Amino acid sequence: MITGKTRVAAVVGRPIAHSLSPILHNAWLAAAGIDGVYVALEVDELGFASFVEGLRGTSLSGVNVTLPHKEAALAAAHEAHPRARRAQAANLLVFDEYGAIYADNTDGLGLIAAFAEQAPQFDPAGGPVVVVGAGGAAKGAVGALIDAGCPDVRIVNRTLARAEGLAREVGGSAFALDDTEAAFHGARAVINATSAGLADGQTLRLPLEATPEDCVAMDMVYKPLVTPFLVQARDLGRPTVDGLAMLIGQARPSFEAFFGQAPPQDTDVRKLALEALGL
Ligand code: ATR
């Protein structure tokens, strides 16, 4: 039952109705017996800054932030974790009792957690990892890999200049799409952080066969859960990691920030998310 004491957290974005975050957080709240609720709020670009400003010093403990507000979320904060500053984006805002806003970015933690769960044999510090893409998603992945000790992050992108910019800003080395095979040589994992196949209906065909046989393929997209890239990897018999594991992995530290304790380990939120996806 929702009472006057119920703690409230939310995910803010646009569009937001299909967000899986409320399903994850509310299942954890119920399992942990916490008097709390997690809702999805649609806020447009024009309203975002004043929305966040208005939440300062309220009883709302924080919000997750998704597209298109991740950059604006960082800008709205008074303080930010270095990983959020480096990613130039925040997916988590926490409000303290004095009205200060603290930003963090847990997407990278989610990425590493997804590997730990679905490809535990992969060691991010164990060799080269390829990130395909150079947008916001790729930026977060490159930073997370460097933080996890990856000695050689290789950024492949259609627009080479963007890969070079990302390498300069965050780290790693840049490769053009024409040089993908060279980038794939000896790779321990390949992470697809492009939006190819999402909006424009185009799919990106990568020479995955140039990677070692035990190279892990990971796609940050979870709709579809098994992307064309993961289908290609599975056809080659490669281990795969999906974007839903990353979504759940980024939600865990957010839950802890909102409700003061880690989510219960034994709740099968993946099953609930798959049901919500119709799978
Ligand atoms: P996000 O912030 O979600 O990562 P983005 O900044 O729009 O989104 O970046 C999209 C990424 O997908 C870019 O790396 C883009 O390549 P370009 O930098 O060359 O634009 C990549 N991408 C999108 N569609 C692609 C396609 N059809 N083939 C190859 N790369 C594609």
Summary keywords:
single chain, 279 residues, alpha/beta, Rossmann fold, six-stranded parallel beta sheet, 12 strands, globular, binds 2'-monophosphoadenosine-5'-diphosphate
Q: What features would you describe in this structure?
A:
With 279 residues, the chain is of the alpha/beta class. The protein folds into two domains: 7-106 and 250-276, Leucine Dehydrogenase, chain A, domain 1 (Rossmann fold); 122-238, NAD(P)-binding Rossmann-like Domain (Rossmann fold, 3-Layer(aba) Sandwich), CATH 3.40.50. It is 39% helix and 18% strand. It is built from eleven helices and twelve strands. It has helices at residues 21-32, 45-55, 70-76, 82-87, 107-118, 136-147, 160-169, 180-184, 228-235, 243-259, 269-276, and strands at residues 7-13, 36-42, 62-65, 79-80, 92-95, 101-104, 129-132, 153-157, 173-176, 189-192, 216-219, 240-241. The strands form two sheets. Strands 2-1-3-5-6-4 form a six-stranded mixed beta sheet, sandwiched between helices. The chain has a six-stranded parallel beta sheet with strand order 9-8-7-10-11-12, with helices on both faces. Helix 1 links the parallel strand 1 and strand 2. The radius of gyration is 19 Å and the shape is globular. The relative contact order is 0.15. The model has no long low-confidence stretch (mean pLDDT 96). Bound molecules: 2'-monophosphoadenosine-5'-diphosphate. The site of 2'-monophosphoadenosine-5'-diphosphate (ATR) has 17 residues, from helix 6.
CATH class of the largest domain: Alpha Beta
Tell me the domain tally: 2
The share of residues in extended strands comes to 15-25%
Portion of residues within helices: 25-40%
CATH 4th-level superfamily of the largest domain: Leucine Dehydrogenase, chain A, domain 1
The coarse silhouette is globular
Strand ordering within the main sheet: 2-1-3-5-6-4
Which fold name fills CATH's third level, the topology of the largest domain?
Rossmann fold
How many beta-strand runs? Answer: 12
Low-confidence stretches: none
Query: How is the main sheet built?
Result: 6 strands, mixed
* End-to-end distance: 30 Å
Order of helices and strands: EHEHEHEHEEHEHEHEHEEHEHH
Using only C-alpha atoms, the radius of gyration works out to: 19 Å
Could you tell me which ligands this complex binds, including any ions or cofactors? 2'-monophosphoadenosine-5'-diphosphate
SS summary, helix count: 11
Structure class: alpha/beta
Q: What's the pLDDT, averaged over the residues? A: 96
CATH architecture call of the largest domain? 3-Layer(aba) Sandwich
